[in-house]
Amino acid sequence: MAYESQKTVARDSLLLRSLPDTHVGTLLSQARWQHYDRGENIFLQEETSQAIHVVIDGWVKLFRIAPTGSEAVVSVFTRGESFGEAVALRNLPYPVSAEAVTACEVMHIPSSAVISLIKQDPEIGVSILASAFTHLHSLVSQLEQLKARTGAQRVAEFLLNLCAPNAQQCDVTLPYDKMLIAARLGMKPESLSRAFTRLKPVGVSVKKNHAEISDTLKLREYADADPADSWSKP
Description:
CATH class of the largest domain: Mainly Beta
Organism: Phaeobacter gallaeciensis
Domain Cyclic nucleotide-binding: 15-118
Shape: globular
Largest sheet: 4 strands, antiparallel
Radius of gyration: 19 Å
Helix content: 40-55%
GO molecular function: DNA binding; DNA-binding transcription factor activity
Number of helices: 9
Keywords: DNA-binding, Transcription, Transcription regulation
CATH architecture of the largest domain: Sandwich
Number of domains: 2
Oligomer: single chain
Protein name: Crp/Fnr family transcriptional regulator
Low-confidence stretches: none
C-alpha cells in the first residue's frame, strides 16, 4: 500500500499533474506499488508491456543488449519521472529493458486503466502525449550532445543538471556509479576519468562519488562553448 508521500510524488509527475483529481484518484487506486533492490529487473526487452511506470524514489535505467552482448544505456529516470507510455497504450513488446540502478520505488499504472479513462475523457491523451514528447526531446538532446559536444562538455552538462537552479557554487553527490554515468554519456569509463581531469581548470573537483563545483557560470560557459573554437587557437 502506498503512503501519502508516495502518492504526492506520483501526483506531481509530468504524467499525472495536469489531470483532474478524480482521474488521478482513479489511476492511483488501480496502481501497483513495488520496491526494487539495486540490480533488480523491472521488465525485460521483448516482454509485452502492460503498464506505465512512474519512479517514486531512486534511479532506473533503460537499456538494450546488442547482438554482441554489449549494453547500450538509453535513458536514466528518477523521482517523479515516467516511462513506457507509448508501448503500454498499444500492448507492444518493450524495445528496452529496465533495471533499478539504486534501491527504488516504482508505481505501475495498468495500461487498461489509462485506456479506459482516455475513452471517457480524450483530454487525458494530451497528458500522455506531453510525457512522450518529453522523452523524445530528451533523446534528441542526447543525440545532439553526442554529435556536437566533447566528452568533457557532456560531463560538465551532467554535473550542472545536478546543481540547484541559480547556484553559483555547488557540491553534489553523483547519483549512481561512474560506469553507468559513462554509459549514459556515451563514453568509456576511462574516458570519463579523463573528462573529470579536463574539468579541473574550470573549477571541478571529483573525489569518489562527490563533486565540488566552485563556479557554475564558468562551467556553463565551458559546456556551451563550440569545440571548433579550440581548433583555431595556436
